[in-house]
Amino acid sequence: MPPVRKPRADATRNREHILEVAKEAFTRNGAEASLDDIARRSGLGSGTLYRHFPTRDALIEAVYRSEVEKLAESEKRFAATMPPLGALRAWMLLFIDHVVDKKLIIPAMNTVAGGSIRLIEGARSLIHGAFIRLVERAIASGELRPDTNPQDFVRALIGIFHTTALPGWEESARRLVDILIAGSRPS
């Protein structure tokens, strides 16, 4: 069996560019966004789009997965460049932004076989792992109390998202991040 080749740099760039354009289109127009329009707006041909994403479902799934991967990867970047508690806070705030963006693309995600729940469930482990590592790092550094349970942070943040239908939930969520962190600091 021949070795698997790494995609060419231009193919990777084209794929990423299509995903960015598609995210904007699905956010703006929902599942009705025209794939031909996405190809045109990306400056690439329809053949390039379909080579990477043979179906609308494949493109919608790839857009969501790409956003989740960016969120999960930010954990490593924050951990490498910030103190543990600052990295945790920055990541939690970025997660709130992710939920805002996800709310905008959910109508398109709901058209995929299995719906948005299947996509969200499939990405849960990436997000959960990043979150837990950041909380554990803050505990290990002494910036959070040693009796802090990382799962409590997860549950608290997930609980916030049950209020996304209420006006002002984003500002409230950002305040609650600071309250949660302050309440978990050593005395």
Q: Please, what is the average pLDDT?
A: 88
What is the overall shape?
Answer: globular
Question: What do we call the CATH homologous superfamily of the largest domain?
Answer: Tetracycline Repressor, domain 2
Q: What distance lies between the first and last C-alpha atoms, to the nearest angstrom?
A: 60 Å
CATH topology of the largest domain: Tetracycline Repressor, domain 2
Mind summarizing the main beta sheet?
A: none
Our count of domains comes out at 2
Please provide the count of β strands.
Answer: 0
List keywords for this structure.
8 helices, 187 residues, Tetracycline Repressor, domain 2, mainly alpha, single chain, Arc Repressor Mutant, subunit A, globular
How would you describe this structure to a colleague?
This protein has 187 residues and is mostly helical. The protein folds into 2 domains: 1-54, Arc Repressor Mutant, subunit A (Orthogonal Bundle), CATH 1.10.10.60; 67-183, Tetracycline Repressor, domain 2 (Orthogonal Bundle). The chain contains 8 helices and no strands. Helix 1 (9-29) crosses helix 2, helix 5 (84-109) runs antiparallel to helix 8 and helix 7 packs antiparallel against helix 8.
